Amino acid sequence: MRTVAVVGTGLIGTSAALALTGRGVAVYLEDADPDAARTAASLGAGTTEAPDGPVDLAIIAVPPALVGKVLADCQRRGLARSYTDVASVKAGPRAEVAALGCDTTHYIGGHPMAGRERSGPLAARADIFEGRPWVLTPTPDTGTEALNAALELVALCGGVPIVMDAAAHDRAVALVSHAPQLLSSIIAARLEQADETAVRLCGQGVRDVTRIAASDPLLWGDILSANAAAVADILQEVAADLGSTVTALRALQAADEGERRAGAAGIEAVMRRGNTGQARIPGKHGAPPTRYETVTVVLGDQPGELGRLFGEVGQLGVNIEDVTIEHSTGQQVGHVHLDVAASAVRPLVGGLRDRGWALRD
User: Which family does the similarity line name (predicted)?
Assistant: First the structure.
């Protein structure tokens, strides 16, 4: 692959362009907003000049509702030899592509499972796809050339290709992406009118749950409208769980001991179901989930402290499997949670204390 056109220079389009230019591919940028395309170009994502002839692949990086229209226009102009999109919903765009009479032999749907709570070209990162699933949804008439071009795109961007049926993809992302986005927003909305004293108590739990609530409402409106039925089905199941959980919580305050026991059992049951579901989430590098031990280090808010900590952990010969940082409200310190193998806990704790680091039990 030598030449690629990216039509739509938002977060995903610009990130793909950055990854491709970094691999020596010539990238041509287009956007309905010329300023967005120029911004992407200024970041090194490619050029806003038109290609001399058909490029090897065109990436349609626009909202789901626009994929069919933009693809039809690109094919009419003969922009590329093969085409793919990166929309987060697949069945609706596929139906529109067919209805508009687009050439589906040279087109394959795609969806990189990567993103951020920020949007636009300035939020783009060349490494955003590294190790992340990239779903491809070929139709029965998708040609080998289009499939191979999409597979090469995924490889150049560092993604992991997964071939799925479009409808199955939409049901899956409703569960693992779209419904969580709404639930995060719903929880964060409770903070809108909350007492300032309560807000100041926000810890890592609420920060984790509400992180993606900072996402762009207009962008998510486009996504959710294209997958509304599947998301509504998931939320209806969640609503049923919430209803039974509310009943169980009320029962905990009942005068009757039997009701209180039933309420406690109800809470335990939903928590255990949550334990089981969370344990199914793939672990590091997509491997089966692994239980690590956590070592918590108290870190001052000074430049270079985090790098010094990581350097000294490396000198101790310990591999950090995962890391999270919990910020302390009103204090210039944070808590760095280092997830490590159980066998590494004792030497890590001893070594860090010998080097003067403060650890939290």
Answer: Belongs to the prephenate/arogenate dehydrogenase family.
